[in-house]
Amino acid sequence: MAGIHLIDTISVNKIVWLRSLPEDELGPSNRMIEELETLQLDDGLAFEAITVSDRQEFLDTLASLARDAARGVKPFLHFDCHGSAADGLLLAPSGEHLSWSDLGEALRAINVETGNNLCCLFAACHALNYAKTLSISHAAPFFILIAPPGEISVGTLEERMPLFYRRLHQTKHVTDCYDEVLRADMTMIHAKGIFAKALAKYIRDYTGKKVADDRRGDLIPRWLEARGITSPTVKDRKMARDALKAALTPSQKTVDHFAGKFLIGREPGVTFEQVVLMAAGGKALQKK
Protein backbone atom coordinates (compact mmCIF):
# COMPACT_ATOMS: atom_id res chain seq x y z
CA MET A 1 0.00 0.00 0.00
CA ALA A 2 1.09 3.56 -0.68
CA GLY A 3 1.66 5.96 2.18
CA ILE A 4 4.12 8.44 3.61
CA HIS A 5 7.52 8.04 5.22
CA LEU A 6 7.59 9.65 8.67
CA ILE A 7 11.32 9.11 9.12
CA ASP A 8 13.79 7.04 7.14
CA THR A 9 12.75 3.84 8.89
CA ILE A 10 9.00 4.37 9.42
CA SER A 11 6.17 4.51 6.91
CA VAL A 12 2.44 5.00 7.52
CA ASN A 13 -0.56 4.59 5.26
CA LYS A 14 -3.39 5.10 7.74
CA ILE A 15 -4.08 7.32 10.75
CA VAL A 16 -6.53 5.63 13.14
CA TRP A 17 -8.17 7.79 15.82
CA LEU A 18 -9.42 5.49 18.61
CA ARG A 19 -11.68 7.17 21.13
CA SER A 20 -13.68 6.15 24.18
CA LEU A 21 -15.09 9.20 25.95
CA PRO A 22 -18.23 10.14 27.89
CA GLU A 23 -20.97 11.66 25.74
CA ASP A 24 -20.59 15.08 27.33
CA GLU A 25 -16.86 15.19 26.44
CA LEU A 26 -17.13 14.46 22.72
CA GLY A 27 -17.19 18.12 21.61
CA PRO A 28 -13.41 18.76 21.55
CA SER A 29 -12.80 15.29 20.11
CA ASN A 30 -15.31 15.90 17.30
CA ARG A 31 -13.71 19.24 16.46
CA MET A 32 -10.24 17.67 16.27
CA ILE A 33 -11.49 14.81 14.10
CA GLU A 34 -13.31 17.22 11.75
CA GLU A 35 -10.13 19.22 11.31
CA LEU A 36 -8.10 16.14 10.49
CA GLU A 37 -10.72 15.00 8.00
CA THR A 38 -10.34 18.27 6.08
CA LEU A 39 -6.59 17.80 5.54
CA GLN A 40 -5.61 17.24 1.94
CA LEU A 41 -3.86 13.97 2.70
CA ASP A 42 -1.42 12.35 0.30
CA ASP A 43 -2.66 9.62 -1.99
CA GLY A 44 -2.65 6.37 -0.09
CA LEU A 45 -2.86 7.93 3.40
CA ALA A 46 -6.24 7.11 4.93
CA PHE A 47 -7.91 8.45 8.06
CA GLU A 48 -10.46 6.62 10.22
CA ALA A 49 -12.08 7.54 13.53
CA ILE A 50 -13.33 4.58 15.59
CA THR A 51 -15.47 4.96 18.73
CA VAL A 52 -15.48 2.12 21.27
CA SER A 53 -17.54 1.85 24.43
CA ASP A 54 -16.09 -0.98 26.50
CA ARG A 55 -13.04 -3.15 27.11
CA GLN A 56 -14.00 -6.05 24.84
CA GLU A 57 -14.93 -3.77 21.96
CA PHE A 58 -11.57 -2.04 22.33
CA LEU A 59 -9.68 -5.33 22.28
CA ASP A 60 -11.71 -6.54 19.28
CA THR A 61 -10.88 -3.32 17.44
CA LEU A 62 -7.15 -3.73 18.13
CA ALA A 63 -7.33 -7.37 16.99
CA SER A 64 -8.97 -6.20 13.76
CA LEU A 65 -6.17 -3.67 13.28
CA ALA A 66 -3.64 -6.48 13.70
CA ARG A 67 -5.37 -8.41 10.92
CA ASP A 68 -5.32 -5.28 8.75
CA ALA A 69 -1.60 -4.91 9.47
CA ALA A 70 -1.03 -8.46 8.25
CA ARG A 71 -2.58 -7.34 4.94
CA GLY A 72 -0.24 -4.36 4.61
CA VAL A 73 -1.87 -1.55 6.58
CA LYS A 74 0.71 0.48 8.53
CA PRO A 75 -1.28 2.50 11.07
CA PHE A 76 -0.46 5.50 13.20
CA LEU A 77 -2.68 4.99 16.28
CA HIS A 78 -4.11 7.94 18.20
CA PHE A 79 -5.75 7.12 21.56
CA ASP A 80 -8.40 9.66 22.60
CA CYS A 81 -9.57 8.66 26.08
CA HIS A 82 -8.82 9.06 29.78
CA GLY A 83 -5.99 7.26 31.52
CA SER A 84 -5.03 6.22 35.03
CA ALA A 85 -1.50 5.52 36.24
CA ALA A 86 -2.68 2.46 38.18
CA ASP A 87 -5.58 1.16 36.09
CA GLY A 88 -4.75 1.92 32.46
CA LEU A 89 -7.16 3.34 29.90
CA LEU A 90 -10.67 4.29 31.05
CA LEU A 91 -13.29 3.23 28.50
CA ALA A 92 -16.57 5.11 28.34
CA PRO A 93 -19.47 4.77 28.66
CA SER A 94 -18.91 1.35 30.26
CA GLY A 95 -16.53 2.68 32.94
CA GLU A 96 -14.25 -0.33 32.44
CA HIS A 97 -10.46 -0.11 32.38
CA LEU A 98 -7.99 -1.71 30.01
CA SER A 99 -4.75 -2.30 31.92
CA TRP A 100 -1.47 -1.09 30.47
CA SER A 101 -0.19 -4.67 30.29
CA ASP A 102 -3.29 -5.92 28.42
CA LEU A 103 -3.04 -2.98 26.06
CA GLY A 104 0.61 -3.85 25.46
CA GLU A 105 -0.28 -7.40 24.46
CA ALA A 106 -2.86 -6.15 21.96
CA LEU A 107 -0.51 -3.56 20.46
CA ARG A 108 2.35 -6.06 20.32
CA ALA A 109 0.32 -8.13 17.85
CA ILE A 110 -0.09 -5.08 15.59
CA ASN A 111 3.57 -4.08 15.85
CA VAL A 112 4.77 -7.59 15.00
CA GLU A 113 2.63 -7.59 11.85
CA THR A 114 4.04 -4.20 10.80
CA GLY A 115 7.65 -5.32 11.37
CA ASN A 116 8.15 -2.92 14.31
CA ASN A 117 6.74 0.08 12.46
CA LEU A 118 3.91 1.09 14.83
CA CYS A 119 3.60 4.68 16.09
CA CYS A 120 1.22 5.37 18.99
CA LEU A 121 0.13 8.78 20.30
CA PHE A 122 -1.80 8.79 23.58
CA ALA A 123 -3.99 11.80 24.33
CA ALA A 124 -4.61 10.18 27.72
CA CYS A 125 -3.36 11.22 31.14
CA HIS A 126 -0.58 9.09 32.67
CA ALA A 127 -0.19 7.06 29.46
CA LEU A 128 3.59 7.04 29.86
CA ASN A 129 3.01 4.36 32.51
CA TYR A 130 2.38 2.06 29.57
CA ALA A 131 6.14 1.94 28.93
CA LYS A 132 6.75 0.52 32.42
CA THR A 133 5.20 -2.80 31.37
CA LEU A 134 7.80 -3.52 28.69
CA SER A 135 10.39 -6.31 28.69
CA ILE A 136 13.12 -6.80 26.10
CA SER A 137 12.47 -10.54 26.34
CA HIS A 138 9.30 -9.96 24.30
CA ALA A 139 8.55 -8.17 21.04
CA ALA A 140 8.12 -4.41 21.40
CA PRO A 141 4.49 -3.20 21.27
CA PHE A 142 5.48 -0.05 19.36
CA PHE A 143 8.38 1.55 17.53
CA ILE A 144 7.59 5.10 18.67
CA LEU A 145 5.36 6.15 21.57
CA ILE A 146 4.25 9.71 22.33
CA ALA A 147 2.39 10.21 25.62
CA PRO A 148 1.99 12.63 28.53
CA PRO A 149 3.96 11.70 31.66
CA GLY A 150 1.11 12.86 33.91
CA GLU A 151 -2.09 14.82 33.43
CA ILE A 152 -2.78 16.82 30.29
CA SER A 153 -5.68 19.24 29.75
CA VAL A 154 -8.32 18.99 27.05
CA GLY A 155 -7.49 22.57 26.06
CA THR A 156 -3.87 21.64 25.43
CA LEU A 157 -4.90 18.63 23.37
CA GLU A 158 -7.37 20.64 21.28
CA GLU A 159 -4.70 23.25 20.64
CA ARG A 160 -1.82 20.88 19.91
CA MET A 161 -3.24 17.81 18.15
CA PRO A 162 -4.56 19.41 14.93
CA LEU A 163 -1.32 21.41 14.63
CA PHE A 164 0.76 18.27 15.15
CA TYR A 165 -1.07 16.36 12.42
CA ARG A 166 -1.00 19.33 10.03
CA ARG A 167 2.76 19.59 10.49
CA LEU A 168 3.10 15.81 10.16
CA HIS A 169 1.26 16.00 6.85
CA GLN A 170 3.52 18.82 5.68
CA THR A 171 6.92 17.57 6.85
CA LYS A 172 6.48 13.77 6.89
CA HIS A 173 8.80 13.62 9.92
CA VAL A 174 7.33 12.52 13.23
CA THR A 175 10.29 13.37 15.46
CA ASP A 176 10.59 16.90 14.05
CA CYS A 177 6.85 17.48 14.53
CA TYR A 178 7.05 16.18 18.08
CA ASP A 179 9.95 18.53 18.86
CA GLU A 180 8.12 21.48 17.36
CA VAL A 181 4.60 20.94 18.72
CA LEU A 182 4.40 18.40 21.56
CA ARG A 183 7.72 18.31 23.44
CA ALA A 184 6.56 20.78 26.13
CA ASP A 185 3.63 18.59 27.17
CA MET A 186 4.42 15.03 26.08
CA THR A 187 7.31 12.57 26.01
CA MET A 188 8.52 10.55 23.03
CA ILE A 189 9.94 7.06 23.56
CA HIS A 190 11.80 5.14 20.87
CA ALA A 191 11.95 1.33 20.98
CA LYS A 192 15.68 1.39 20.25
CA GLY A 193 16.24 3.73 23.19
CA ILE A 194 14.25 1.47 25.51
CA PHE A 195 16.27 -1.49 24.27
CA ALA A 196 19.66 0.12 24.86
CA LYS A 197 18.76 1.38 28.35
CA ALA A 198 17.19 -1.92 29.43
CA LEU A 199 20.15 -3.95 28.19
CA ALA A 200 22.59 -1.59 29.92
CA LYS A 201 20.64 -2.03 33.18
CA TYR A 202 20.72 -5.82 32.70
CA ILE A 203 24.50 -5.80 32.24
CA ARG A 204 24.97 -3.48 35.22
CA ASP A 205 22.70 -5.39 37.60
CA TYR A 206 23.06 -9.03 36.59
CA THR A 207 26.52 -9.66 35.19
CA GLY A 208 28.79 -8.63 38.05
CA LYS A 209 30.98 -11.41 39.45
CA LYS A 210 28.97 -12.13 42.61
CA VAL A 211 25.60 -12.00 40.88
CA ALA A 212 26.90 -14.11 37.99
CA ASP A 213 28.34 -16.69 40.39
CA ASP A 214 25.02 -16.88 42.25
CA ARG A 215 23.07 -17.25 39.00
CA ARG A 216 25.34 -20.05 37.81
CA GLY A 217 24.95 -21.79 41.15
CA ASP A 218 21.17 -21.63 40.82
CA LEU A 219 21.19 -22.83 37.21
CA ILE A 220 23.68 -25.73 37.49
CA PRO A 221 21.08 -28.26 38.80
CA ARG A 222 18.68 -27.33 35.98
CA TRP A 223 21.47 -27.58 33.37
CA LEU A 224 22.43 -31.05 34.62
CA GLU A 225 18.82 -32.24 34.88
CA ALA A 226 18.10 -31.09 31.32
CA ARG A 227 20.90 -33.38 30.15
CA GLY A 228 19.74 -36.36 32.19
CA ILE A 229 22.64 -36.19 34.65
CA THR A 230 21.08 -37.25 37.95
CA SER A 231 24.28 -38.13 39.86
CA PRO A 232 26.77 -35.50 38.70
CA THR A 233 30.47 -35.93 39.20
CA VAL A 234 32.94 -33.14 39.90
CA LYS A 235 33.72 -33.18 36.18
CA ASP A 236 30.01 -32.87 35.32
CA ARG A 237 29.62 -29.85 37.62
CA LYS A 238 32.70 -28.19 36.14
CA MET A 239 31.35 -28.77 32.64
CA ALA A 240 28.04 -27.21 33.68
CA ARG A 241 29.76 -24.26 35.34
CA ASP A 242 31.95 -23.59 32.28
CA ALA A 243 28.99 -23.84 29.89
CA LEU A 244 26.87 -21.49 31.96
CA LYS A 245 29.70 -19.03 32.35
CA ALA A 246 30.06 -18.84 28.58
CA ALA A 247 26.30 -18.51 28.11
CA LEU A 248 25.84 -15.83 30.78
CA THR A 249 28.85 -13.67 29.94
CA PRO A 250 27.48 -10.70 27.96
CA SER A 251 28.82 -10.02 24.48
CA GLN A 252 27.64 -8.78 21.10
CA LYS A 253 25.66 -12.01 20.94
CA THR A 254 23.66 -10.77 23.95
CA VAL A 255 22.77 -7.59 22.07
CA ASP A 256 21.83 -9.52 18.95
CA HIS A 257 19.80 -12.09 20.91
CA PHE A 258 17.58 -9.57 22.69
CA ALA A 259 17.37 -7.28 19.65
CA GLY A 260 16.00 -10.15 17.60
CA LYS A 261 13.17 -10.53 20.09
CA PHE A 262 12.38 -6.96 21.13
CA LEU A 263 13.11 -5.08 17.92
CA ILE A 264 11.50 -7.69 15.63
CA GLY A 265 14.34 -7.83 13.14
CA ARG A 266 15.40 -4.18 13.22
CA GLU A 267 19.04 -3.34 13.82
CA PRO A 268 19.61 -2.49 17.52
CA GLY A 269 21.38 0.81 16.77
CA VAL A 270 24.02 0.17 19.45
CA THR A 271 27.04 -2.08 19.75
CA PHE A 272 27.96 -4.15 22.77
CA GLU A 273 30.74 -1.69 23.58
CA GLN A 274 28.25 1.20 23.61
CA VAL A 275 25.90 -0.71 25.90
CA VAL A 276 28.78 -1.41 28.31
CA LEU A 277 29.58 2.31 28.27
CA MET A 278 25.96 3.09 29.17
CA ALA A 279 26.03 0.49 31.95
CA ALA A 280 29.09 2.23 33.38
CA GLY A 281 27.28 5.56 33.44
CA GLY A 282 28.22 6.93 30.05
CA LYS A 283 25.99 7.61 27.08
CA ALA A 284 25.94 5.94 23.70
CA LEU A 285 24.70 7.72 20.60
CA GLN A 286 21.57 6.12 19.19
CA LYS A 287 21.22 5.53 15.48
CA LYS A 288 17.69 6.42 14.39
CATH architectural arrangement of the largest domain: 3-Layer(aba) Sandwich
The gyration radius over C-alpha positions equals 22 Å
Number of beta strands: 10
CATH class of the largest domain: Alpha Beta
Q: Determine the mean pLDDT.
A: 88
Measured as a percent range, the helix fraction is 40-55%
Q: Overview of this structure, please?
A:
There is one protein chain. The chain is of the alpha/beta class. It is 48% helix and 17% strand. The chain contains ten helices and ten strands. The strands form two sheets. Strands 3, 4, 5, 6, 7, 8, 9 and 10 form an eight-stranded mixed β-sheet that branches. A hairpin with a 2-residue loop joins strand 1 (4-7) and strand 2. Helix 7 crosses helix 8. The longest helix has 18 residues, at 154-171. It is elongated. The two termini are 24 Å apart.
Q: What is the structure about, briefly put?
A:
The chain is α/β, with parallel strands linked by helices. Helices cover 48% and strands 17% of the residues. It has two domains: 4-185, Rossmann fold, CATH 3.40.50; 195-279, no CATH class.
Task: Give the topology, please.
Elements lengths: L3 E4 L2 E3 L1 E7 L5 H12 L8 E6 L3 H16 L4 E10 L3 E4 L4 E3 L1 H15 L4 E4 L21 E4 L6 H18 L2 H9 L4 E4 H16 L2 H18 L7 H15 L3 H11 L9 H8 L9
Parallel strand pairs: 3-4, 3-5, 5-8, 8-9
Antiparallel strand pairs: 1-2, 5-6, 6-7, 9-10
Helix pairs in contact: 1-4, 2-3, 4-5, 6-10, 7-8
